[in-house]
Amino acid sequence: MIIDCHGHYTTAPKELQAFRDEQIKGNDTPAPLKISDDQIRETIQNGQLKMQQERGSDITIFSPRAAGMGHHIGTGKTSEVWTDVCNTLIHRVVKLFPKNFIGVAQLPQTPGVPPSNSIKELERCVKEFGFVGCNLNPDPSGGKWTDPPMTDKKWWYPFYEKMVELDVPAMVHVSMSCNPNFHTTGAHYINGDTTAFMQFIMSDIFKDFPTLRFIIPHGGGAAPYHWGRYRGLAQDQKRPPFDELLLKNVFFDTCVYHQPGIDLLTKVVPIDNILFASEMIGAVRGIDPNTGHHYDDTKRYIDKAPISEADRKKIFETNTKKVFPRFDKSYAANN
Ligand SMILES: [Zn+2]
Question: 305, 263 in Cβ contact below 8 A?
Fold first, then answer.
């Protein structure tokens, strides 16, 4: 089974955005969203499902559009209503296509509001919808970084306790940037990934939560390319070596969109810490003129990486099932 651990419903029917536009205008609770099963079928069959079939992956761990989370918009109430609607829509996709999609939750975060407020929605998604993880935004302010670091005990630990109890991982995933200095997918996303990695290095978070797991998407931001820098910084700060410090807890996806990037990732980062992902249909939708293939057709790069077949299987399937222990049970229940 080839599992793509990172995909968003970027092709949702336009009614979803119309609902959100009402919220942006100041109405926290617009009229209930009306989208038919046929509309969902059409957007998926002509979008993500088609890509899966063309490219040879089997199932995508699927969540609401990340840039659309917009945690900085409105109040805690705005975010709660929006998140409920987005997660419910993902649940409907999974029900219609149980062999091809499995759900991951958006969280109703808001700057200045403790992440413990997201516990209820996480529980609902895991227990009622069979979701297997969540996307956690390290910067709900959208590029202003106004809340405490991800390793802050008082702020974040109550939420992590719930993740551990439910045995679900989180993908560290920022949303849209509202700081014009940071392009959303080109700068803010990669900043978010790199920032989280450095915060983990400087903290005892995984001593406090030995089974807490995070996926750092977009190939781990700058971390794998600068592995020596980060190891050196950790050493200077008298932090333990990475295998002891974070490699049981932190994983990287394969959304780097070119062969040399994947070759570097698989050479630098232990194979057990790499999970296959494409983030299709996402930020980078074009065809690379050098290869004639879509940049985000990432399976090709893993297929060509100079690693053993056993290692390829780990990246495509086994590692992901370890990081998402609810995967098999949820898949069986859905089917
Ligand atoms: Zn994403």
Answer: yes
